[in-house]
Amino acid sequence: MSITAAMPTAKKRPRRTRTKQVSPLPAIQLSKLLPSHIDLRKPLKAVLICTDCETWVPITGMQGKVQKLVPHHTGKASAAAAIRCRSSNRLVDFDLTIPEWQRALTDADKEASSRQATTVLPKAFSPQTDRTLRAREERTPAGRVADWAAVLPRVADADEARRAVPAGDAPAEARSVPQQHLTVQRPAC
Question: Is the pTM of this model over 0.70?
Answer without folding.
Answer: no
